[in-house]
């Protein structure tokens, strides 16, 4: 997953550097002189889980689906090429977990995980100097993610059909994008890779549970595509 993200980031930057090679009108010439500015973003995500096991014998097959992101942007310029950014927003996604070691039909072997997170990323944005009407950048940082759909406090576990995850989680993200300076606003598409820091799984009460007993680590990972407007 990380290699794919880095490859896409590299292609993204190279493609941007080939654009706008001729003399054109320069828009928003005073934009980068602002100390603080605001914006919002919309986007798509594709998330699954990184899972490691204590021993062989358990395998969870994750089938992800596309989800959405929406949120706000607050940006503080601390240097001509460095910005500190906060991007609070919502991220929603659905995944199907198939426990291949469990028989008995879909009721026991399949769990559908509908997750909606409040994400509060604190990011550092490193930009190149402006090139005509675009400006490539790298971005990265950490995020606090609150899972509204965690089921952490549910007294039932997988023996009663309930798959549980933790409410409070932390992720890190890395990515790249381009600021396009248009006549009336800044359009900033980017691609991000996100990776969980903590173990998000709430284990079943039975330490030998066929669903969670052999799971050592269970954490979100995924790709976000964001379209920001300032």
From TrEMBL:
Signal peptide: none annotated. It comes from the Bacteria. InterPro entries: Beta-barrel_OMP_2 (IPR025665), OMP/PagP_B-barrel (IPR011250). Residues 34-200 form the Outer membrane protein beta-barrel domain. It holds the Pfam family OMP_b-brl_2. This is Outer membrane protein with beta-barrel domain. It comes from Lutibacter oceani. The lineage of its organism: Bacteria, Pseudomonadati, Bacteroidota, Flavobacteriia, Flavobacteriales.
